[in-house]
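Open question from group meeting: does this chain pack into something compact, or does most of it stay loose? Before anyone orders reagents, we agreed to write out a predicted structure and look at it together. Recording both the input and the output here so the notebook holds the full record.
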Amino acid sequence: MNPALTENGQKLRDTGLKAVGEVPWGTHFSIFYETKKDLLEIVVPFFKAGLQANEFCLWIVANSELLTINEAKAVLHEAVPDLDRLLKNGNIEIVPYSEWFLTGRAVNIRKAIARFRQKVSEAANRGFSGTRLTGSPAWMRDNLRARSFRQFEQKFDGQLTREQMIAACTFPLKLSGAEDILDAARTHQFAVTVRKGAWKRVEIADIESAKREARQTTSPELEQLTFRQREILQLVAKGQNTKQIADLLGISGKTVEAHRLQLMRRLKIDNVPVLVRFAIRTGLVSSES
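Structure tokens returned:
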């Protein structure tokens, strides 16, 4: 069977995702997911297809992704038995967001874009057919103004159109408000939602549909909180102390405490055990956590 081609004769790339199918180089789309299981059902087949097609694969793991670097490697290893060899040979890299996007504690967009260019160039020089990338830029909305976040996505999208590269940006629904979701959706070519294994493609041109989808994803109580507050609530519910949260997020302990007190006031909760139960009830963390 001959591979599918675009109108200009370019070979389409198999994303490994049934809801997305085959796409041309330069494709930049967003996926909104609900649970860790949903995230893995996105990332594992996406990278497995890329490795089979001799593409260089890059996974940038953020704290908001609900799993650690070691967990990411472990789950991918189950689907790709020779992952250790591929990691050693540089066919795939799994890196923390802080290593890629931060200079000190500040987001450096210029350097991040430059790193993408360098990786794509290196992949081509090493004989890879192209590059595929996934990661969650959701945390950046709390570190950048909304306008700066959109500018980053637009610059990245512009870079993609000139390269043999495809990118799937993942966004955890429980950490994202309706406006966050719409803002992210507008800066991508199309969006897909995954909720408890159910996939749905949402065309960005249909803003009303996107609004309805956004309202269905998050409880009204969580909508009161900013992304950073949800992130800290999630980590508190997982048993992380103030110092651990500060180290993970690259902020001071005083800032963590300020966010925690503010979110507890907004939720009218005055103790941590009730806060943990709230996080479980709203799906921000699982009861196993």
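Observations to bring back to the group:
The longest helix spans residues 36-52.
The chain is about 50% helix and 15% strand.
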